[in-house]
């Protein structure tokens, strides 16, 4: 009782409770063994003895008002001048009484309570003790806006405060329309640097799976506590949100349904002043092996001397191998294979091996001559069949033999002409074997 000059005296004798009320008192609550037994709301006149019920279940007890004497009229407190309540009723309140708060479900938004209990969505009804002040917050899902509460005591679209003095049902209404929390036309882009500036409880953004969320308004409602979110403000929280990593845990489908409410845009790799994103660099390395010698060339590689280079991600490089005199190119290894051109696109660091072996020279028999052919970016064959270069670039032929050589360029190359014992740009040439001959097929 906070009314000035109004007093309540309560005497407990066993199960007998006697209350003495001063005029103007609005409420009397009677306790027995620290349990609420009776409660009266209204205006009680005069002094009335009240007896607590002796049965285990509280019941209503009626007391009669003493008739006022003709000479006096009990004074009323100014606040009670219009009080017309029935002064003869005392309402019992059973120990353990609770009231139910129900939120009408909606697929277009969520409602969360403080103290916790309502998370609608998934939990749309719970009980509270009498007199509990419950604050409700609503948030629309993507594509909707929150339009208001059904309770007349909660006008507008802010929070709704409900005092639980009876069972209550409240509807949160949502209407179709752009959620102001979500950017139009697919969202804006934010860099990790921009997100990192929102790193406090009062201004908290998170990156989850390449999307950016402003969860500032949700922090106080987080079931796992404030610190679980605040410690990650301004960072990429994907691992903590989707797995048990980084001190987090995999979240539920209901938690997933909340995310669109707080979406502000996508994560971009560019910077805030529209500079291009940084370029990824990869390394290409060439190693030579075998008993012979030779060179590998292409792009920035000239191996011989330069056998390693760095290039931007996505760069294409073509490598060719050429054996020196007395050696033969055998094959590629590592990132390439075969004997033709080695073509690579660098999306990671790559290593290539070129194998060269020495050539064993056997003196030709009397009356024979050697035809040697060089063809780096194509194949040369002969008629009669003795040369297939690519693989066989030298043959011994009898004196006077007429040999027809034919060239086939490799893919991506063009035959530009013969040199040595042949000349011209025709794809065929004829060589008379009256001495050792050397022929080169040239390409670009």
Write a brief structural summary.
This protein has 444 residues and is mainly β. Helix content is 5%, strand content 45%.
Please explain how this structure is put together.
This protein has 444 residues and is mostly beta strands. It folds into 5 domains: 8-92, no CATH class; 99-176, no CATH class; 188-267, Flavocytochrome B2, Chain A, domain 1 (Roll); 281-358, no CATH class; 368-443, no CATH class. 5% of the residues lie in helices and 45% in strands. The chain has helices spanning 192-196, 226-230, 238-242, 253-258; strands at 8-13, 16-21, 27-32, 35-41, 61-62, 89-92, 99-104, 109-114, 119-120, 125-128, 133-140, 144-149, 160-163, 168-176, 188-190, 199-200, 203-208, 211-214, 263-267, 281-289, 294-298, 301-303, 308-312, 315-323, 327-334, 342-346, 350-358, 368-375, 378-383, 388-389, 394-398, 401-409, 415-420, 428-433, 437-443. Strands 15-19-18-17-16 form a 5-stranded mixed β-sheet. A 4-stranded antiparallel β-sheet has the order 3-4-6-5, with no helix packed on it. Strands 10-7-14-12 form a 4-stranded mixed β-sheet, with no helix packed on it. A hairpin with a 2-residue loop joins strand 3 and strand 4 (35-41). The chain starts with 7 loop residues before the first strand and ends with a strand.
